[in-house]
Input
Amino acid sequence: MAEKTVQIELTRAEADNLITFLNLTSVRVLEEIKLWDSLKNNERYPKAESNLKFWESVRDTVNECYRQSL
Output
C-alpha cells in the first residue's frame, strides 16, 4: 500500500526559511551518513547499519523537499 502524502502550504517567506534550513541541515545529515557508514561493520556499534539507513532516508527526504521548493 502506498504511503499517504501530505501537502503543506507556506508563504514565500516561510518557504525561503525552509530552504535555508534544508541547506544548513544537509551538511549535518551528510556528516551523520559518513559517521555511521564508517561504523557499520564495527561490532561495538550494532545499530550502525540501521542508523545509516535512517540518515540516508533523512537525506533523501531533505533533498526531495529542497527539489520541490525550487
In short: The CA atoms of residues 7 and 68 lie 11 Å apart. The chain has two helices and no strands.
